[in-house]
């Protein structure tokens, strides 16, 4: 059991200041205040369906119309959302010049399970407000989106495999308005495959470019290296139930590092944390980090 009081803000800030390699593992709770619904929690998404069962290759093969409507709903929701204070706090922590008084000798990388793109938008906006060359040079190391991006569109043809970033709203004409039908609880339309999003290179059926259940997450080699050298891991807005991300914090502790958890409520593994801050992470995280956003 950790010897440091779980809720000791000053002790956490001292650990932050002495750290050399910090990582953050973020989940759906990070974006909750931005209006992004979560798979888990009260109600969840798409009341008529087990949303997690739609996020699989098998579901797409069986019913691409339904799965595309699910992801169209998520795309439209994400396009309307804005990064919140927790996103911006992590973005500021990403900048060497901005964390000089918080963790002056540390590196920092955000490893996110979210696909909504809000962390990338917060980082882009924060970077635009800073001109330090050191911040620009290591930009690529600040954010790893291990479950892909909601606005990536990927060809299903193995001979093509083209992927492109596309924020078009709607992604195709046949999906227009279906998000309202789903929100109202109405029956979803059966859209013909030929009318669903197509690859811009070969015109084959396209799929959302996210990592589904039963697929291998992205950047695993880079993440493994970061986890192995991290001496402080921030767990932000995740229930720590989906692997491999759920195991990263314990690996950091096994290597002698510390873990700080920022969650709305208690979740799996909290009793092993060195620090635990309960409440909306858009409130607890900026306060704990001592950063202005």
From TrEMBL:
Q: Which reaction does it catalyse?
A: N(6)-succinyl-L-lysyl-[protein] + NAD(+) + H2O = 2''-O-succinyl-ADP-D-ribose + nicotinamide + L-lysyl-[protein]; N(6)-glutaryl-L-lysyl-[protein] + NAD(+) + H2O = 2''-O-glutaryl-ADP-D-ribose + nicotinamide + L-lysyl-[protein]; N(6)-malonyl-L-lysyl-[protein] + NAD(+) + H2O = 2''-O-malonyl-ADP-D-ribose + nicotinamide + L-lysyl-[protein]
Catalytic site residues? Answer: 147 (proton acceptor)
Subcellular location per UniProt equals: Mitochondrion
Residues binding Zn(2+) are: 155, 160, 199, 202
**What does the function comment of this entry state?**
NAD-dependent lysine demalonylase, desuccinylase and deglutarylase that specifically removes malonyl, succinyl and glutaryl groups on target proteins. Has weak NAD-dependent protein deacetylase activity; however this activity may not be physiologically relevant in vivo.
Name of the top EC class for this enzyme? transferase
Q: Which residues bind substrate?
A: 71, 74
Name of protein: NAD-dependent protein deacylase
Assigned EC number: 2.3.1.-
A cellular-component GO term for this protein: nucleus
| UniProt comment concerning the protein's domains | In contrast to class I sirtuins, class III sirtuins have only weak deacetylase activity. Difference in substrate specificity is probably due to a larger hydrophobic pocket with 2 residues (Tyr-71 and Arg-74) that bind to malonylated and succinylated substrates and define the specificity.
Keywords carried by this UniProt record = Metal-binding, Mitochondrion, NAD, Transferase, Zinc
Cofactor(s), names only, from the UniProt record: Zn(2+)
